[in-house]
Design goal:
The protein is α/β, with parallel strands linked by helices. The chain has 10 helices and 8 strands. Strands 3-2-1-4-5-6-7-8 form an 8-stranded mixed beta sheet, sandwiched between helices. Strand 2, helix 2 and strand 3 form a beta-alpha-beta unit. The structure holds 1,4-dihydronicotinamide adenine dinucleotide and 3-(4-hydroxy-phenyl)pyruvic acid. The site of 3-(4-hydroxy-phenyl)pyruvic acid has 7 residues, from loops.
Length: about 280
């Protein structure tokens, strides 16, 4: 499908793309670069990529580039790559926030290069090249937030995503950031916050160590990469603050029902939520 794919940032996402590309033979060669030398060496040892680059200059031969660095670095890396890429190259970023990154890039796209903002809704709480695995993207959504019209380049990216078994959807970037503030960023805020609460309780009372499966299920994502999540919280600040306010308001409604011993209302509320959750999970 491509002659040379370049991957900038060889952690969970970049490394998993490398494995999926190699397995599906989507490129003759995969070049990778990571500013962290240990991660670059690990990516080579784990065969996530074929060739390790010593700088972005080597990406000048690529016809497709994936930028999978932390969100706060994404625009800077894409703009830097614009200086070295050849004509007709397609470059995508995969950052979890879209609007502010697109705003930093969209007026600097060189003629002949296609920049396509994307977001694979596939991940785990783990990070770094050692956490990469080939099947990460299977059956997951791949969102494209096109800057203008859908052109040949978007279609090519769509084809690429489908070849690694992803389900492609198009979405407006602003709407993406509003929705993901609720369905992804808010759950991370709450999980981090709940673990923090229990941690401080435990400092004064060891009994707070007796956590069960529910707590563990609910807080798995509090083990996620703090660099990535602090970037996301700041980049999508406005939407996340609204989601937190909305959440607090909803929590207070539940608090009042419990406080007032409204048994019938509580049963009905919990039942309706359970039925919706069962429907969500299919
Ligand atoms: N972790 C997840 O579940 C998901 C993450 N994403 C997005 O993918 C991107 C990467 O995330 P992960 O792979 O999870 O992070 P990660 O922490 O596993 O990997 C990021 C890699 O980028 C490297 N890096 C940092 N600055 C760099 C630069 N200037 N040039 C080259 N390499 C650089 C780091 O050394 C690290 O190896 C982020 O933008 C994130 O928002 C998207 C979907 C899911
Ligand atoms: O670990 C999990 O369940 C996640 O929620 C992974 C994840 C993290 C960030 C994204 O932008 C998309 C997916």
């Amino acid at each position: 499908m491509f002659n040379t794919i370049g991957i900038a940032g060889l952690g969970l996402i970049g490394g998993s793309f490398g494995l999926a590309i190699k397995h599906n033979k989507l490129s003759k060669v995969v070049i990778g670069f990571d500013t962290n030398e240990e991660n670059l060496n690990d990516a080579l040892k784990l065969e996530l990529i074929d060739i390790g680059a010593s700088s972005y200059k080597s990406f000048s031969i690529c016809d497709f580039v994936i930028v999978s660095v932390p969100p706060s670095q994404t625009a800077k890396v894409v703009l830097g790559l614009f200086e070295v890429l050849k004509e007709n190259t397609i470059i995508i970023d995969v950052a979890s926030v879209k609007g502010p990154i697109i705003a930093d890039i969209k007026n600097s796209i060189p003629k002949g290069i296609s920049y396509i903002p994307t977001h694979p809704i596939a991940g785990t709480e783990n990070f770094g090249p050692r956490s990469a695995f080939r099947q990460l993207f299977n059956d997951k959504y791949f969102i494209i937030t096109p800057i203008n019209n859908i052109t040949f380049a978007e279609k090519k990216v769509e084809e690429f995503a489908k070849k690694i078994k992803m389900k492609v959807k198009y979405m407006d970037a602003q709407r993406h950031d509003e929705v993901f503030a609720y369905v992804s960023h808010l759950p991370h805020v709450i999980a981090y916050n709940l673990v923090n609460l229990i941690w401080h309780k435990k400092e004064n009372d060891e009994a707070y160590s007796f956590v069960g499966g529910g707590f563990k299920d609910f807080t798995r994502i509090a083990k996620s990469n703090e660099k990535m999540w602090s970037d996301i919280f700041f980049l999508n600040k406005k939407n996340i603050l609204s989601a937190i306010d909305d959440y607090i308001e909803n929590l207070l409604v539940l608090k009042t029902i419990i406080e007032n011993n409204e048994e019938k209302k509580l049963l009905e509320t919990l039942k309706n939520i359970r039925l919706f959750k069962e429907h969500l999970d299919g």
